[in-house]
Amino acid sequence: VEKWFMKHKLLDGKALSNELMSSLSDTVKLRVSLGKSAPCLAIIMVGNVEASRVYVKNKIVACKNSGVHNVLYDLPEQTSTKELLNLIKELNFNESISGIIVQLPLPKWIDTDLVIKAISAYKDVDGFHPYNLGRLIQRIPLLRPCTPYGIIQLLKAYKINLKGKNSVIVGASNIVGRPMAIELLNNGSTVTVCHRFTQNLKELVKQAELLVVAVGKPQFVKGSWLKKDAIVIDVGINRLENGSIVGDVDFSEAVEIAQYITPVPGGVGPMTIAALLQNTLLAQSLLEETL
Ligand code: GUN
Predict the structure, then answer these.
(1) Helical H runs in the chain?
(2) Which protein residue's CA is at the shortest distance from atom 8 of ligand 1?
(3) Atom 2 in ligand 1: which residue has the minimum CA distance?
């Protein structure tokens, strides 16, 4: 009985991702049957960050499962900004490439902002280019950052009403926290963003009807911090010394208090990847408009 009840609390990102991927796969097949080309994602990885290798591997598996082609550029740690920019320029012009991602973080001597800006805004399937972020903030989104886009789709699939919701985001990164704030605002939510200088974090989290946590600290948010029946979105993927993977929220505590919660793994992660492939398909159609 306990397990059955728990299941109903889970926001099952893995299941929704599987559905979205299967629909993407149908779309790609249909395109190919009409003589159009399959989308192709270029993935650039620099150096040997262990976590990045795992994420990139997962992205490649997702491409294969959905019929999206991929090309991997696995560059050495000592790659210069110049070399990276030259590769991006080439891929921007290459008509067989629909989308480009540069896996982050980059080695510290590479200027990440310069690299992101160099990717054609229409091939920017991570949605990190200033053009795409500008469009999101003006409520005319084009390519949207994958994690926030995936989370919004997960919330909508569970018919969670965002209008007027008191939403709190913990973590203000360019990749998750900031675009998440804009996505929630665009959906009529009242948004508070907490970060390392926030003074009354626990107080603010206690107010949250919807809580999004993206801080990269294992089990940082405790069950006792939560408002009863909060909806909890855990973006964290942390590996403990014993090898197990946990989120930024203490799941076993939080699941007792929350109305809904995303598991880790199997919550936000798979949705991020589905959103990446959706963006790649959109980028392919943008490419065709210009050919
Ligand atoms: N590193 C952590 N998250 C992401 C992401 O969404 N995209 C890329 N390219 N790198 C990341």
Answers:
(1) 2-9, 13-33, 50-66, 81-93, 112-118, 130-137, 146-157, 177-186, 201-207, 251-257, 268-290
(2) 103
(3) 104
**Could you report the per-residue pLDDT of 199-248, keeping only the tens digit for each?**
999 999 999 999 999 999 999 999 999 999 999 999 999 999 999 999 99
Q: Which atom of ligand 1 is nearest to the CA of 52?
A: 1
Atom of ligand 1 nearest to the CA of 103: 9
Residue numbers annotated as active site: 59, 103, 126
Q: What is the pLDDT of residue 2?
A: 56
For ligand 1, whether the C-beta of 176 sits within 6 Å is no
Whether residue 175 has its Cβ less than 6 Å from ligand 1:
yes
131 pLDDT above the threshold of 70: yes
- CA dist 205 and 213 (Å) reads 10
Instruction: Please tell me the pTM assigned to this model.
Output: 0.97
